[in-house]
């Protein structure tokens, strides 16, 4: 009888542990003006994930191997170089070999999408984009940086020289600057976003690899004062030659050329909106709306 009782308790404990655990490790990529490990930002997110997902492995990406380079990379290291670096880091991490889920914060959202499209091994399972700018930005009203002069420099650069070759190389934000009044210049000279959005030429591998995701979750912050237009967080953007009216995703070329239409038919696209400014959310909201995608039952 005692053996049966102990066996019962074992299975109750095992079941609770199993269902609270993450099926896959989690990879995080921070946004502009942040680093992998600030205790008040991604450091706290790492701790929260480890607590809620039964000590699952969480890898918060540190570009360049130290916190200074990691911070500077968000402004000055070309996204193509960052993505290449991250792909190498993920490939050699044995804990990720069976697959992983990913959360991108702000520009980290589109950077991780580039990882999914360019580097299918190890396989990314769920991509969660928190405030990512998947159709780029046209405006930088509030620039998150520890140094005010950095923001002023970036604003001037984007306003006057975003599509110059040298600007594309020295400013991360220039590589996803999307000017609706100069669509031809954007497509011809954007060295990152236009490519991963299949606007330069149609890359079938990008489509195939993105469609391998189980879920692509996009979170839009309704009171965002940093991302313009905020609809870019849902893969939408202005209609050409103006900056007021938003073109529905279903009417945009990228909906087809990147395979998003097929993903939507397979219920792989998830659109979530929340009140608050850029990346401003409460723990309770995160637990309710994000954690379930990282757990076993999310499938």
Automatic annotation (TrEMBL):
<keyword id="KW-0732">Signal</keyword>
<dbReference type="Pfam" id="PF02089">
    <property type="entry name" value="Palm_thioest"/>
</dbReference>
<protein>
    <recommendedName>
        <fullName>Palmitoyl-protein thioesterase 1</fullName>
        <ecNumber>3.1.2.22</ecNumber>
    </recommendedName>
</protein>
<feature type="signal peptide">
    <location>
        <begin position="1"/>
        <end position="21"/>
    </location>
</feature>
<dbReference type="GO" id="GO:0005764">
    <property type="term" value="C:lysosome"/>
</dbReference>
<dbReference type="GO" id="GO:0006898">
    <property type="term" value="P:receptor-mediated endocytosis"/>
</dbReference>
<dbReference type="InterPro" id="IPR002472">
    <property type="entry name" value="Palm_thioest"/>
</dbReference>
<keyword id="KW-0378">Hydrolase</keyword>
<dbReference type="GO" id="GO:0008474">
    <property type="term" value="F:palmitoyl-(protein) hydrolase activity"/>
</dbReference>
<comment type="similarity">
    <text>Belongs to the palmitoyl-protein thioesterase family.</text>
</comment>
<keyword id="KW-1015">Disulfide bond</keyword>
<dbReference type="InterPro" id="IPR029058">
    <property type="entry name" value="AB_hydrolase_fold"/>
</dbReference>
<keyword id="KW-0325">Glycoprotein</keyword>
């Amino acid at each position: 009888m005692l053996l049966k009782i102990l066996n019962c308790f074992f299975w109750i404990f095992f079941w609770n542990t199993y269902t609270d655990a993450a099926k896959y490790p989690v990879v995080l990529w921070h946004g502009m003006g942040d680093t992998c490990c600030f205790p008040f930002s991604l450091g706290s997110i790492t701790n929260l994930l480890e607590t809620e997902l039964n000590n699952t492995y969480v890898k918060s990406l540190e570009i360049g191997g130290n916190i200074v380079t990691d911070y500077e990379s968000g402004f000055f290291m070309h996204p193509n170089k960052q993505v290449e670096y991250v792909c190498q880091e993920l490939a050699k991490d044995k804990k990720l070999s069976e697959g992983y889920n990913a959360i991108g914060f702000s520009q980290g959202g589109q950077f991780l999408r580039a990882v999914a499209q360019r580097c299918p091994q190890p396989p990314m399972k769920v991509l969660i984009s928190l405030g990512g700018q998947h159709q780029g930005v046209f405006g930088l009203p509030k620039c998150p940086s520890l140094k005010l002069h950095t923001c002023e420099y970036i604003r001037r650069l984007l306003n006057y020289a975003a599509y110059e070759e040298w600007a594309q190389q020295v400013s991360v934000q220039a590589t996803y600057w999307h000017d609706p009044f100069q669509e031809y210049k954007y497509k011809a000279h954007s060295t990152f976003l236009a490519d991963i959005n299949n606007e330069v030429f149609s890359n079938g591998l990008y489509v195939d690899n993105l469609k391998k995701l189980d879920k692509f979750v996009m979170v839009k912050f309704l009171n965002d004062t940093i991302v313009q237009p905020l609809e870019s967080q849902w893969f939408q953007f202005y209609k050409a030659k103006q900056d007021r009216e938003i073109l529905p995703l279903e009417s945009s070329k990228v909906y087809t050329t990147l395979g998003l239409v097929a993903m939507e038919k397979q219920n792989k696209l998830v659109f979530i909106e929340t009140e608050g400014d850029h990346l401003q959310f409460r723990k309770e909201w995160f637990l309710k709306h994000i954690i379930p995608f990282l757990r076993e039952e999310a499938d």
